[in-house]
Each structure stands twice: as structure tokens, then as C-alpha cells.
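User: C-alpha cells in, sequence out, please.
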């Protein structure tokens, strides 16, 4: 199998870190990137302990100058070649009702998950297109196929990633560049910690009844988690296959959930998701007994 030069964004933890190691173990040359330089160094050392070599580079996907610096550094390190594959993995989750998420947090979420992904893609794509071969692998989510309440903003970024990837796949096919989406379910990484740190526990919020349930929701989410190796396997297939698939859903239970939600009438799935997230009238507004007792 031909060894490829691969760029991985968000390689300081979770899926990105495991992907960098998995691809290096498979014999590919990996440029692992991220913001936390100490975490990149620990990744490099772990690879070295295994007799592997991983190149690390600081890259904040929200900063055009950082993307350009990484592109130039990789071009120099590869004698002007660039990369064969880009794994757009950097991203995080934002939890809260759509109404309450502040403007700044909303924009920051899109800067990383959507504009960052697009910025990295556009920087590395021209060389692949001109060579007539390459791969763009975009890490989306089951939340790019099903919208979960209290995760609507995060999910909307993944829907954007799905749509952009669908367009890119057809646009780039004539140039020999493949585009794949990876759609993970619940994966054991730092994702849940980062997402939960964004929950605003405001007792005066009209949604307080639902945000109070956030920890219970997290436990349910954690009970279904699998290890990042499920995702890295899918990413490796997208990089190595002669004919990469448009979508890799993993684990299998995520595929079943997507299929079920497609079958259910919207009124049923709405009721199910509302119950699961504590978004019931009784929980948020009360059953009216307080008003009744005042009136009587
Ligand atoms: N875990 C899940 O259940 C799950 C499910 C579906 C989809 N996903 C998706 O999988 C991807 C990876 O997440 P994960 O689960 O591995 O979570 P994670 O362990 O929190 O890793 C997220 C990575 O993204 C990086 N990142 C965040 N902002 C960045 C920025 N501005 N520039 C560069 N890197 C940035 C983080 O690195 P630094 O903070 O060091 O920069 C970190 O390496 C995300 O796109 C996520 O949406 C995860």
C-alpha cells in the first residue's frame, strides 16, 4: 500500500490524536497539528517510543495566518509536494438552548467547526487538485444527520459540514480528489468535558429545568460511548481506499439511530427527543397547579 502524506487537525487529544498514531502505525507520514503545543510534544514522544515518527505543527484552524504558516511549513518539509490527505477533525460541542447561546459563543462555534474546516481545506486543496489526486476527510457527527435539542447550534455546524462536503465531493471528483464524511456517534474523548463546560447553569433561565438535567443526559451519552479506534478505522479507510465512501457512520449503533429517526414521523421523534432532554411543558413551565392554587 502506498504511503501517504496526511495532515490531521485537532490532534492534541481524542479522535485526532488516535488518528495521527493509527496513520503513522500504518506507514503514512503524518503532520499532527493543534493548538496545545505541549500535547503535540507528548504525541510526538509517544510515537517515538513506538519507533515511529510524527511531525507536529501548531495550527489554530480559526486563524488564517496560522493555517498559512502550517501550509508553508509542510510545503517546505515535503519539497514542495504538500499533502495527499487532509483530516479535518478539529472541533468542539456547545450545549444549550438555541435562544440562550450568546452571539460570541455562536460565532466562535462556527469559526472552528465550519469556517476553520473550510479554511484548512482551501489552503491544501489547490496542490491536490493540480496533481489530480487527494483526499479530504471531514469529521462530522451523527449530529450532522439528526438534530438533538440543546445541541442545536453544534448540530447546525455539522449540518453545514455535511452540505459543504456533499458539494465538494461532486466538484472535486473530476480532479481526482475524494471527499468523505465521518459520522461518529458517542466516542470516549475529551469532547463531553469540553461540551459540558459550555452549559450555563442559570436558575433564572426559562430552560433551567432542562439544563439541570444536563448531567443525567451526559451519563446516558457516556453509557453508549465507544473508543476512538472505531473512528480512526473509518478515517484510515477513507484515506486508503481506492474508492472512498461518501459517508462512514460509526459505531453501527449510530447508523441504526440515523435509520430509525428517518423512519419515525416527525411528531414522534420530536416527542421522544423532548422527553429525553427534559424539554417538557411540565418541567419548564409547570403543570399550572401553582396558578390554580393562587386563583382558588
Ligand atoms: N467524541 C464524540 O462523541 C464525537 C461525536 C461526534 C463527532 N465528534 C467530532 O470529532 C471531532 C474531534 O473531537 P473529539 O471527540 O476527539 O474531542 P476532543 O478530544 O475534545 O478533541 C477536539 C480537538 O479539536 C481541537 N481544537 C478545538 N478547537 C481548535 C482550533 N481552533 N484549532 C485547532 N484545533 C482545535 C482540540 O485541540 P486544542 O484544544 O489543543 O486546540 C482537540 O485536539 C470534533 O470535530 C467533534 O465534533 C466527536
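Assistant: Sequence out:
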Amino acid at each position: 500500500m502506498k504511503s501517504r502524506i496526511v495532515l490531521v487537525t485537532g490532534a492534541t487529544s481524542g479522535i485526532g490524536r488516535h488518528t495521527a498514531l493509527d496513520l503513522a502505525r500504518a506507514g503514512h507520514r503524518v503532520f499532527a497539528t493543534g493548538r496545545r503545543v505541549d500535547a503535540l510534544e507528548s504525541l510526538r514522544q509517544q510515537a517515538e517510543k513506538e519507533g515511529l515518527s510524527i511531525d507536529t505543527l501548531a495550527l489554530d484552524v480559526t486563524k488564517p495566518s496560522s493555517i498559512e504558516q502550517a501550509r508553508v511549513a509542510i510545503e517546505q518539509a515535503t519539497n514542495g509536494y504538500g499533502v495527499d490527505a487532509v483530516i479535518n477533525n478539529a472541533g468542539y460541542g456547545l450545549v444549550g438552548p438555541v435562544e440562550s447561546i450568546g452571539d460570541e459563543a455562536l460565532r466562535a462555534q462556527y469559526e472552528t467547526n465550519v469556517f476553520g474546516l473550510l479554511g484548512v481545506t482551501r489552503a491544501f486543496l489547490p496542490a491536490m487538485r493540480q496533481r489530480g489526486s487527494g483526499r479530504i476527510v471531514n469529521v462530522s457527527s451523527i449530529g450532522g444527520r439528526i438534530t438533538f435539542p440543546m445541541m442545536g447550534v453544534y448540530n447546525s455546524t455539522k449540518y453545514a459540514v455535511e452540505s459543504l462536503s456533499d458539494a465538494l465531493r461532486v466538484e472535486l471528483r473530476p480532479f481526482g480528489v475524494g471527499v468523505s464524511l465521518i459520522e461518529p456517534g458517542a466516542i470516549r474523548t475529551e469532547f463531553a468535558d469540553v461540551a459540558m463546560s459550555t452549559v450555563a447553569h442559570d436558575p433564572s433561565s426559562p430552560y433551567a429545568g432542562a439544563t439541570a438535567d444536563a448531567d443525567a443526559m451526559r451519563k446516558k451519552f457516556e453509557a453508549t460511548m465507544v473508543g476512538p479506534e472505531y473512528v480512526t478505522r473509518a478515517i484510515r479507510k477513507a484515506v486508503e481506499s481506492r474508492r472512498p465512501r461518501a459517508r462512514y457512520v460509526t459505531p453501527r449503533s449510530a447508523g441504526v439511530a440515523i435509520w430509525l429517526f428517518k423512519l419515525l414521523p416527525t411528531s414522534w421523534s420530536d416527542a421522544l427527543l423532548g422527553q429525553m432532554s427534559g424539554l417538557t411543558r411540565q418541567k419548564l413551565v409547570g403543570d399550572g397547579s401553582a396558578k390554580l392554587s393562587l386563583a382558588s
